[in-house]
C-alpha cells in the first residue's frame, strides 16, 4: 500500500542523484534515524535520491555510513538540498583522472576503459565510487564494484547486452534505466524475464521497454 500523500518523484531529482544537504534539516524531519547518521552527516552532509514515491512533499533519500551495515532510508524537504550532482555529471567531469586513490581502488582504475566503451551513450556513476567522486569522502574499497547507470529509452536486446558485458572490465554492475524502471544489464543479457525496480516496488516483466511506466 502506498503511503498517504505519496506522489511521483517531482522536480529535477532522479534516482542516484547525489545531494549535498543541510544535515540539521534531515535529522529534524526524520528523528528516528539510527545514531550513526548524526556523525555520518556531520562528516559528509550528503545523501542519494532513492527510487521511491515522494511522500507529503519530502524526497526519498538514502544515507551512507562507514560500512555496508550502515545504510538507511530517510526523507528530506527539497529546500534542504544545497546542491545536486547527477551520475552523468560525475562521468563528464572525469574526476577520477586526478583522484589520489586511483592506484589502490580497482573500480576507479577501470573508469577510463568504461568511459571509452560507453562513449556516445547517456551514462553515469553511482554507488560508492560515485559517492566518493561527488563528496571527496573515501567510501570505495579495493573490493567495491563499479556501479554504472545507463539511460536506455530505446530497447537493448540480449545480444547487444551480452556484447557490452563481455567488453566491460570485471566487477562492473550496470543498471539500465528503461521507461519502466531500472534493471540489470546482466539480466537483459540472459534473456527472459527481468526484475525491474519501479517507483512503486519491484516487478518481474518480459520486456521493460514494452510495458507502460
Number of helical runs?
8
How much of the sequence is in beta strands?
25-35%
* Low-confidence runs: 1-6
Give, in spatial order, the strands making up the sheet with the most strands.
6-5-3-2-7
Count the domains. Answer: 2
| Helix share bin | 25-40%
Radius of gyration: 17 Å
Describe this structure in words.
The chain has 2 domains: 6-85; 87-205, no CATH class. Helix 7 links the parallel strand 9 (146-151) and strand 10. The protein is of the alpha+beta class and 213 residues long. The protein has 8 helices and 13 strands. The longest helix is centred in the C-terminal third of the chain and has 10 residues, at 158-167. It has a 5-stranded antiparallel beta sheet, with helices on both faces.
Observed structural traits:
213 residues, 13 strands
In short:
Helices cover 27% and strands 28% of the residues. The protein has helices at 23-29, 36-43, 87-93, 106-109, 111-117, 127-135, 158-167, 185-190; strands spanning 6-7, 18-21, 46-49, 54-55, 59-64, 71-76, 81-85, 122-126, 146-151, 172-177, 182-184, 194-198, 201-205.
Amino acid at each position: 500500500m502506498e503511503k498517504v500523500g505519496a506522489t511521483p518523484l517531482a522536480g529535477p531529482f532522479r534516482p542516484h542523484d547525489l545531494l549535498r544537504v543541510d544535515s540539521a534539516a534531515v535529522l529534524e524531519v526524520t528523528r528516528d534515524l539510527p545514531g550513526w547518521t548524526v556523525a555520518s552527516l556531520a562528516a559528509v552532509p550528503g545523501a542519494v535520491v532513492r527510487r521511491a514515491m515522494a511522500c507529503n512533499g519530502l524526497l526519498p533519500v538514502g544515507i551512507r555510513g562507514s560500512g555496508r551495515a550502515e545504510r538507511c532510508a530517510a526523507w528530506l524537504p527539497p529546500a534542504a538540498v544545497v546542491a545536486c550532482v547527477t551520475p552523468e555529471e560525475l562521468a563528464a567531469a572525469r574526476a577520477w583522472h586526478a583522484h589520489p586513490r586511483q592506484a589502490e581502488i580497482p573500480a576507479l582504475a577501470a573508469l577510463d576503459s568504461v568511459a571509452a566503451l560507453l562513449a556516445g551513450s547517456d551514462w553515469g556513476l553511482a554507488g560508492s565510487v560515485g559517492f566518493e567522486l561527488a563528496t571527496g569522502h573515501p567510501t570505495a574499497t579495493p573490493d567495491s564494484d563499479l556501479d554504472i547507470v545507463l539511460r536506455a529509452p530505446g530497447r537493448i536486446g540480449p545480444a547487444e547486452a551480452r556484447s557490452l558485458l563481455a567488453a566491460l572490465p570485471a566487477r562492473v554492475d550496470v543498471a539500465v534505466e528503461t521507461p519502466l524502471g531500472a534493471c540489470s544489464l546482466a539480466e537483459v543479457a540472459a534473456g527472459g524475464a527481468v526484475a525491474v525496480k519501479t517507483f512503486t516496488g519491484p516487478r518481474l516483466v518480459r520486456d521493460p521497454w514494452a510495458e507502460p511506466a
